Amino acid sequence: MTPEQKRDLLAALARKGRYTAMVGDGVNDVLALKEARLAVAMGNGSQMAKGVGDLVLLSNAFSTVPAAVEEGRRIIRNTHRVAKLFIAKTVYAALLLATFGLAPIAYPFLPRHLTVTSSLTIGIPAFFLALASSSGPVRRDGFLRSLGAFVVPAGAVTALAIGAAFLCAYGPADLALEESRSVAIVTATLLGLGIVVQVERGVERRPVRPWVWGMVAAFLVGITVGLQIPWLRDFFAIPMPGPSGWGIIAACSAGGILLLLAVRRIPWLNRIEEPPAVEPAPAA
C-alpha cells in the first residue's frame, strides 16, 4: 500500500464513526499515523514516525498497547467521577449563595466550616477515587451533558437539605446561630458522603467497593469524634449540637439522601448520564 492509501483507508473508517489506530515505524507510515486517532510508533522506527506518534513502544512489543489503552480508559473514568464530586459542591454552594447570600438572614457556613466538609466529602475521596482502579464504559462524547445530569440534581438536593436543616434549627427550634451552623455543616457532610457513594455506584448502579464503604464509615466516625474534642470544636467553630439539633440533622439528612436516591432513578436523567456503548477493552 502507498502512504496515501493508508491515510485514505483510515479517513474512510473515521467517516464511518470508527475510532482508528495506526501502528507504524517508517516514513511511509507518517501520513497514516497523523490521520489516526491513536498513533502508535515503534521504538526502533524512524525519528519522524516517533515524532508524530501518540505512543512510542520503547520495547517494540505491541503487547504493551492493551495495557496502555486500559490505563487511559481508567484515567478518563476516574476523571469523570472526580469531576462530579467537585462540580456538585459548586452547584450547591452557588444555590446557597443565590438564596441565603441575598436574603436578610445569617449564612449557614463560615469559611472554616467549608474546610471540614470539603476535606471529608471532596478532597480526600477525590484523591483515592482518582488513583483507584475502575471499570465500566467510557464516555467520549457528551461529557458536559452527562456531568450536568448528575451534578445539578445532586447539588440541588444537597442545597435543599442544608437550607432546611439550618432554617429549622435557627427558626422553629430556636437554636443559637453557632449551633444552627453546626447542624448545617454536619448535614452537608452527610449529604456529601451520600454523593460520594452515588458517584461510586454510577448510573449502572455498580456495587460499592468495600474500601469506599470503609472510607465513608471512617469519615462518619471522624466527624463524630471530632465534635467531642473541645479544641477542634473551638478551632473550626462547630459547637456540639444538642438533642434537638441532632434530631434535625437526622431528619434532614435522611430526607435528603432518600430524595437523592429518588432523583437518581429518574429515567430521562439516566438516559442523559448513561454513556453510549463503546467497543470492548482489548484483550491482553
Describe what this molecule looks like in 3D.
There is one protein chain. By secondary structure, this protein is mainly α. Helix content is 66%, strand content 4%. The protein has helices at 3-15, 30-35, 47-52, 64-99, 111-131, 143-170, 177-201, 210-226, 230-236, 243-263, 267-273, and strands at residues 21-24, 38-42, 55-57. Strands 1-2-3 form a three-stranded parallel sheet. α4 (64-99) packs antiparallel against α5 (111-131), α6 packs antiparallel against α7 (177-201) and α7 (177-201) runs parallel beside α10. The chain starts with a helix and ends in an 11-residue tail after the last helix.
The count of β-strands is 3
User: Any idea what the radius of gyration is?
Assistant: 25 Å
Biggest sheet character? 3 strands, parallel
Helix content: 55-70%
Q: Give unreliable regions as ranges.
A: 277-284
For the termini, the CA-CA separation is 29 Å
Mean pLDDT, to the nearest integer, reads 88
Q: Which strand order does the major sheet show?
A: 1-2-3
In one word, what is the shape?
elongated
- Structural class per helix/strand content? mainly alpha
Instruction: Note the beta-strand portion.
Output: under 5%
Q: What's the number of helices?
A: 11
Strand-and-helix sequence, N→C? HEHEHEHHHHHHHH
